[in-house]
Amino acid sequence: MTREPRAGYSASSPELERWLARHIEQGFDAESLVLSMLRSGYDATFARDMVNAALGSAASPRRRPSPVPPPARQPAMRPAAATPHALAAGGNVFRHEGRDIPILFAMEAPRILLLQNLLDGPECDALVTLARDRLQRSPVVNPDTGDENLIDARTSMGAMFQVGEHPLIAGIEARIAAVTGLPVDHGEGLQILNYKPGGEYQPHFDFFNPQRPGEARQLRVGGQRVATLVIYLNSPPAGGATAFPRLGLEVAPVKGNAVLFGYKLPDGSLDERTLHAGLPVESGEKWIATKWLREHPYRSRG
């Protein structure tokens, strides 16, 4: 016996409206759009209404997807199972506003993608310039208290930016949303990190452990993290790879490329094979931009 999906988020936002408009223009059908919203935690009726409204106002002269029929019987969907559509099996290239973003490699379990030229050279350089004047020592979340502490395992300097804080960042966040299929408001603010020679981030998980009080606090402002996107803003002469020690995988930092990986297994549990590290920089320095994606719209604790 099937059940109606349980109530979820039912608040519109400019980011959600732009996300729908972009994906309709790119040819996504109505059912796919609704399914993506359901997986992101939106209420089923709200999702269908938003998609139908967006289809009705789309200005594209080409044939539009058929409206979503009102499904009287639809299986229940768990918001916790939200997964960016980029992490599902698909084509070999993403396209956004005239830009081709090839997939250099893809791993199925866990799902990891290496994207080529997510950013171009000038965009990378501009992000580094924006970050230089606000760099501070990068903290980590204390698993017991939820506070941000400095630890020896993470030696980078970082700069945090609010969502849409700068036109350059807003444009990049729109591109990330188009590639991942998650609206802009599911992303935490962009974090730009700088590692000097010897700098590293020892093996760690990006998702939160709900059994630890401090990490459980993080779940109140957007739910669980579902994926990480690491963008390389320069190409260090040696070292600085992103390593997945349980997979025997190392991703070399190449300017403009990005590695995207998700943590959710089909049953909704967290995949500990996504343990990863920023290996020590052996020569020069490393600059990266990191975007963490949540299962629900993210609201900073301020």
Structure characterization notes:
This protein is α+β, with helices and mostly antiparallel strands and 302 residues long. The chain has helices spanning 14-25, 30-39, 44-57, 121-132, 167-180, 213-218, and strands at residues 93-96, 99-107, 112-115, 136-137, 140-141, 148-149, 157-160, 191-195, 201-204, 225-232, 238-239, 242-244, 249-251, 258-262, 276-278, 281-283, 286-294. It has a nine-stranded antiparallel beta sheet, covered by helices on one side. Strands 9-15-12-13 form a four-stranded antiparallel beta sheet, with no helix packed on it. The longest helix is centred in the N-terminal third of the chain and has 14 residues, at 44-57. It is globular and about 55 Å long. 37% of the residues are buried.
